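In keeping with the milestone schedule agreed at the kick-off meeting, the structural modelling team has produced records for the first pair of proteins. Each record is given below as a sequence line and a structure-token line. The laboratory manager (R.T.) confirmed that both were archived under the project's standard naming scheme.
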Amino acid sequence: MSRRTNLVDLDPSANPSLQRLQALSATYVDTMNTRLERAASYKALLTASPETTAHAFQPGLIGTMRSEVLKLERDYEAQLKVYKPDWPPMVALKGELDRSKQHLAAAVKQAVAAARQSAYAAYEAALARSGSSEPRSTSSNRRSWIRAPWAPNSAHWARRSRAAAKCSTSF
């Protein structure tokens, strides 16, 4: 059959060009999978609640601080049943409770920022790695569906273009 149609059956193990093509294809698929996993991880961190993200990133610290705040809240509520809120020890307990809440909020904010920065750096590393093996036709679109939270979005550019149009027509 192959002689009649001028087709040649190639044995993959005997053809070095085919082996290199298979290796390149496997590398490309691996880098694309890694990039997509990292992008999905980063997107998930952007949409997750700050408490969940912070607890996942620093479980011991956030858990301990949260239990301390809950203990202080229970103590305050129990003391509030006996004493008035303006009694000096109650004011001191309320101040300690507020400071603990602020400290927890700051720790959560810091943990979330560190987690997001780490995930974005991992995504950028995977993107850089996949950029060398990515076909030219898709390389220009590879960043179009994910962006850093500080990057301007399309609404930003629409406002800028409307402002520019308004300025140019006023002259």
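The second protein of the pair:
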Amino acid sequence: MANNHCEDLGIPEHLHQNDRPVKPHFDDGEKIYRRLAPEHLEGNRVVEAAFDSYDTSVNREKYSQDPGDVLFNIVDGNHYRHWGVAWLRVSEIEILRLPHPVLGDEKIHTFKLMHKPEECMYPHSEMSVRQGDKTLTKRPKSGKVRTQLKERLSLLSKVAIRPTPPKA
């Protein structure tokens, strides 16, 4: 059943939540997609600035028809048509263990993927940063930790769709 609000924003029906439940389990082989501003790609390398220090917004492959589904803007319908898309594999993210640069193993940072559907974007999820058994609600205090998190995600990322220049 189509959602009129989502249709008005130009969001395809397969992305509407339509009362579908949260699906917390991610398969290890599943991909997640992150949209890329044109400046977030240097050659074939996704730069660190493409990622947040916590709660990075992504879309699940399992509930998308195409990596480009992540380019739809659910806020105002001004879609990211000329942006690109990076992907990462769930298994590569959830096994990451990043020790604190000073405190070492006392403060290990890990990632947890959480399915957080939006009304017009059912595949929407967040890649949360955890410290021990706590999910961080703000960016890590240590600049070195933030840099390390973004560097690791950058290294694991692959390009699914390259940004294209807007047509004049």
